[in-house]
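Hey, resending since the last one bounced:
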Amino acid sequence: MKATQKKFHITKVLGFYMSVLEHEWIIILDAKSAHDIEQMCIHVGISTTSTVKIVPINDMQKVMAKLKST
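The C-alpha cells again:
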C-alpha cells in the first residue's frame, strides 16, 4: 500500500487496524478525495477480500470554527 500512496494522492496513513476474523480493515488516511481512496483499495487488492466503506471525516476543531464563522 505504501508504494501506491503517492499515485492515489494519499498524503499519509494516520492509523491502520484490522479485524482478521471479520475481514474488516480500518484505515485512517489523509487523502485528496474518497474516490482516490477507493481506487487505491481496488489497485492494492483490499477490496477483493474485504468490504470497503469510505467515511469522509473532518477535524472537529475545524468544523466548529467553520460553523461559528457562518
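DSSP finds three helices and two strands in the chain.

Sorry for the duplicate.
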